[in-house]
Specification:
2 copies of one chain form a homodimer. Chain A is α+β, with helices and mostly antiparallel strands. The first copy, chain A, has 5 helices and 10 strands. In chain A, strands 1, 2, 3, 4, 5, 6, 7, 8, 9 and 10 form a 10-stranded mixed β-sheet that branches. Chains A, B: GO terms for molecular function: RNA binding; tRNA pseudouridine(38-40) synthase activity. Chains A, B: Homodimer. Chains A, B: It is an enzyme of class 5 (isomerase).
Amino acid sequence: MKRVKLIVAYDGTNYAGWQQQPNAVTVEQKLNEALTDLLGEKIEVIGASRTDAGVHSLGNVAVFDTDTRIPAEKISYALNQRLPDDIVVQDSCEVDADFHPRYCDSIKTYEYRILNRKFPMPEHQRNTYFVHHKLDVDQMKAASSYLVGPHDFKSFCSIHAQVKSTVRTIYSIRVSKEEDIISIRISGSGFLYNMVRIIAGTLIMVGSGRIKPEQMPQILAAKDRQKAGPTAPAQGLTMIGIEYL
Amino acid sequence: MKRVKLIVAYDGTNYAGWQQQPNAVTVEQKLNEALTDLLGEKIEVIGASRTDAGVHSLGNVAVFDTDTRIPAEKISYALNQRLPDDIVVQDSCEVDADFHPRYCDSIKTYEYRILNRKFPMPEHQRNTYFVHHKLDVDQMKAASSYLVGPHDFKSFCSIHAQVKSTVRTIYSIRVSKEEDIISIRISGSGFLYNMVRIIAGTLIMVGSGRIKPEQMPQILAAKDRQKAGPTAPAQGLTMIGIEYL
């Protein structure tokens, strides 16, 4: 028996998110089907980030246990033959039996992309959120700096989420603009439900002049979801990768 | 009566190319339908670049004549409401009645994109061509320089094309690499059928070590399609834009 770790990239457009669920096609389900078919054993992966419907990934992590004699490094190649084109395993390797993708300490990185121009551009349609009024990137940068560090992010968490603590640590936020695309790249110890999309939605309000950067401490202190901006749409969000410590 | 010029961006994945044809959905057809619906007159656009099935565009050009009272600048907004998400008009303006998108002198720019890494990446699947063996970009750059200038590009033209002359002028070719994407950007007075894709296919052979840069003059001189590399797949090609002189 060995435990195998996969790095999984996907275009989330056609999936109802990561997590297996009845009456919907999910990334986890496609992986389980392909692995079960490849290895001839019933496989159920454990995913690191259970991304929502429409969210993309360059490097989500999943593990599973198997008795196969296929070397772990070879699994990626054989698995990609059995997966649809919009899910591609980037790497497979053996890990310790006690490695767990959610419970081991890690730095997770997400990126939210905004296409900011007069008209949408088809080539960016699937993985950006289109905003046509001009956003002030400097104001968005200024606002983002208030979020770095350990904070209670209750104001940035969807209200139906049930978690013991809403304290999380953001290690870095980088807001940058290249041509017409504004990227918000966030690394942290972990994220609450919809937290990155609510941060993105709030920074878009800042870029639009509807929230001032100096209001960010109050929004955090309020611990009230109503004080932050809207949840930005799923298609702008990409899970970049996870570094285990 | 006025003549209106459109700048048209599209994701070519779901279209049988630009040009209207029976039993297939094309970009030209979608534009004609949307314009006819918007303006209440039968409209047939004239396109600058009749891109092939699967080829994308950031800035193809089309014109049409109309009696509408809608100001030319407003047409883009109303038209985008009637077009599918993968076709977006970027600009509309009035032009002289004798302006013709194909017969007026212009500099056309295309880009061919190659995703060069171990495994495909879903976010780039629709507008790159995936090559997994490592390409030598310096060799590709060296080879591309031989193509700049006026040349008889008969070796780089699909054999069923019927044109009077196969001489064309390439003003510039820039081969560059950013992360895993190699871009070949070519500007010229005009291009023969499949010319950019055959140049891309030939430069991929060079990057693979199967053709030497110094062989390029011979390939040009042969005036023989068999001497150049294969026609690279359509999905890697994007029509960037057209500058009228």
